[in-house]
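SAMPLE LOG
Freezer: B-3
Tube label: C17
Construct: single chain, 243 aa
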Amino acid sequence: MDTEAQPTTERDRSSRPSAPEDVSQETPGPEGPERRSRFAFAGRIAHWIPGGRVSLTLLLCLVFLLTLNAFVAQPFQIPSGSMENGLRIGDRVLVNKLAYRFGAEPRRGDVVVFDGTGYFGNSDYVKRVVGVGGDHVVCCGKEGRIQVNGRSVDESTFLYPGDSPSTVDFDVVVPDGALFVLGDHRGRSSDSRNHLGSPGGGMIPVDDVIGRADWIVWPYARLGRLPRPSAYARVPGAEGAHG
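STRUCTURE (predicted):
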C-alpha cells in the first residue's frame, strides 16, 4: 500500500449548493444493522436462559473451566506428608495434563500424579519418578544411595532431612511402559518399594499417569514452580545397563 499522501481534487462548489454532510448516512452508528446481526445469535440464546446475558456468560465460563480441567490442567490437594519438604499437607498443585499427551514420556525426577487403582489403592497419588522403562534401580549402593543404571543418585536436594534413601532393599528392572516411583519423605511414603509383591510389582503404568505436577498454586506464600532436579541428569540410558 502506498503510504504517501495523495493529492486531493478541489471541490467545484459552484456546481452544487453547499449542504451539511449527513454523517449518519455515511457511517452506521453503533446500533446499525451490522452490530445488531453480530450479537443476534447470543441474544436469542440469552432470551431463553433465566437471567439472560449474565447467566449465559457464567455458563460459558463454567464450560471453559470444565474443559480446562478435563484436558489441560487440574488442581490437586496434597493429602499427606509423603512428598515433604517439597510438597506439604494442604498444598494445592497444578497438574499439567498435556505434559505426556503428544509423544513425550515421564522423565526421571518428574513429580507425577497417577491413578493408583489396582496397584497402590483406590485413589490418586503424587510421587517422584525414579526409574522409567528399562531402568535398573537398586538400593542401596556402596555410597548408601539409590543407583539407576549403575549411576549413584545424590538425592540430598529433595530428600526429606534425616531420611535415608530407603530402609527397604530392592533390585528391580522397570518394565517398558511403566514407572518406579518414590516419595521424597521416604519414612512416610508408601510407594513402589512397599508394593514389590503386589500386582504390577510396585510399578505404575505410564497410561495411568494423570499428569506432571508443575506448580504449587496455594498457599500463596508457597507459590512456585516444581523444577526437575539435576540429580538424574547423568544417569545413563537403560540400554545394556543391567547386562
